[in-house]
Write a structure and sequence with these properties.
2 domains, 145 residues, four-stranded antiparallel sheet
Length: 145
């Protein structure tokens, strides 16, 4: 926590590295105990839990590969991508609508999150209707289908 609080860079990279190490440690410990543990109940638990830990480790490795080019947290120094960035979108519908409205759009409607985690809907700006999109970084796009 102290390392994350004291960073002057984006939080993404230190956090991802911490998660990579933690998952590697957990997989190693559970794997070793599942193989050579001395308590049968704990050995069974370790063996049953290991596939889930490996799945989580694979997920953080994918995030680590993507985080260099698509940070999860948008900062002032993060350039706006040319199109919505797919990713796990944690905005609720109400939050997505407010974010789009805060970007200068009105009459935001028909919002739905697609399979890529991008909120898509309709809105108006300067009296003209347009399609809008909000990616998981909070970037708002107009004219996106």
């Amino acid at each position: 926590l102290e390392r994350l609080q004291s960073t002057t860079a984006s939080l993404d990279q230190p956090y991802v590295e911490m998660q990579r190490k933690a998952h590697a440690d957990a997989v190693g410990l559970f794997g070793a105990y599942a193989k050579d543990g001395d308590n049968p109940a704990l050995k069974s638990f370790a063996a049953e839990t290991l596939p889930t830990l490996k799945m989580h480790q694979d997920m953080i490795e994918k995030i680590a590969g993507a985080s260099a080019s698509t940070p999860a947290v948008k900062s002032a120094s993060t350039p706006k991508p040319p199109a919505p960035v797919p990713g796990a979108n944690s905005f609720t519908e109400a939050q997505a609508k407010k974010r789009i409205q805060d970007a200068g759009y009105a009459d935001v409607s028909a919002l739905a999150k697609d399979e890529q985690g991008i909120w898509r809907g309709q809105a108006t700006k300067d009296g003209k209707g347009t399609s809008v999109a909000l990616d998981y970084q909070g970037n708002v796009f107009a004219g996106q289908q």
